[in-house]
Structure formats: structure tokens, C-alpha cells
Amino acid sequence: MQESTIDQRLDRLERTIRWQRLILGAMGLGGAAALLMALAPASPGTIDAQAIRIVDASGKPRILIGAAPPTEGRQRKDAQTASIVVLGPDGADRLVLGEEPPVLVDGKTYPRIASAYGLLIHDAKGNERGGFSFLDNGRAILSLDRPGGDAVLLTANDKTGFAGLVVNYQNPLGKYAEGLRMGTQADTVWLSLQDRAEGERARLAVESKAAPKLITRPAGAPPAP
Questions:
Q1: Any alpha helices (H) in the chain, and if so which ranges?
Q2: Is the pLDDT of residue 84 over 60?
Q3: How confident is the model at residue 36 (pLDDT cuts 50, 70, 90)?
Q4: Residue of 177, 171, 172, 212 whose CA lies nearest to 194
């Protein structure tokens, strides 16, 4: 009789423990769900922010994201474009991704020939030294710059139809002189060599099915036709 009573009590205790485990498990799941709901944004998958500033261990701004990015900690105050900007330790622009600001050379800014979006790289002083861009005037450009301007340029021009490579001499800012141009336009492919002072000195061209044509001229001679 006593053994039967003990068995009944053990059965009731085991059932109680099972129910307690089920209740605790349900409470745990409910708490986890509530936590996830609290952490989820009001609009799933979307974070709205006008600007984000990321700083290094010393508190200096190093990455700026925004439309436009914050100006605090950045040397340039005129470059308010929708972009991601990576700064050097002194606040100089080193990389800009997005809407491109005006060109900066030797501390001075110059307007672009058209609005553009792309990726720009800069030297340690913040001077633009190249990039990959598409301009609103229909030009795609991949460039490497000298301190005073374009050095090597790959371009595709929707308006003129030219696609090719241009290599410039090193000249003062604003005084460009091509040394080499090669590419295609319509049914013609050509290579043009130019000197700094007199322009084109040699051209090798193939137009459609015509025979290849080589034109040269010595220094001082009239320009080639």
C-alpha cells in the first residue's frame, strides 16, 4: 500500500516537472520573439539616415557617408555631394565614391565639364589623381593624373563615337598637350603620335576595307591632311 502511494506521488511529480519545462520553454521562446521584434526596424530592411560618420580609435573622422556627408573633421567644405568619402589622418580626401565634387588641385577647385558619378582617388594632400567616372555629357572615363592634370586617359565618348587611349605630356595645369592617341571611331582605327610643340607628326590608320595608311611629317612641315 505504501509502495502504491509512493508511485502515485512520483508520477504526479514527474508530470509537474514536465509541465514546468514546457511552460519555461514557451516563455523563453516568447521572450526571444519579443526581443527580436524590439530590435527590428519599423520598416524591415530599411535604415533612414542623412549622414553617418565613422571615426578611428583616436576619435578622428575617417569615413563619411551621406547626402551630403558631414563636414566636421573634413578639410574640404565645398564638396557637399551624395557620396562616401574616406579621409586621411589629417582630414584630406583620399577616396570619393558617388556624386563627384569639383576637381581639387593645389588647394584650388575647378568645375568639371559635366556632372559625374564614379570613384575618385587623391594624393596625401587631397589633390585629385585619377578615377573612374561617367559624365552626364555621355563620356565614360578611366584616368590617371599627374599633379597638373590628366596623364593617361581611357575614354568612350557617346557623342563623337571615339573610344580609345590618350597619353598627355607633363604640362602646367590647364595646358594640355597630347603625345599619343589611339582608338576607333566609326569604321576607322588609328594611332597618332604628336610632339609637344607642333602637334601630329605621324599617323597610322586603317579605314574600313581600305589599305593601311601611314602619314609622317618632319618638324616644321605643314600639318598632315
A1: 2-39
A2: yes
A3: very low
A4: 177
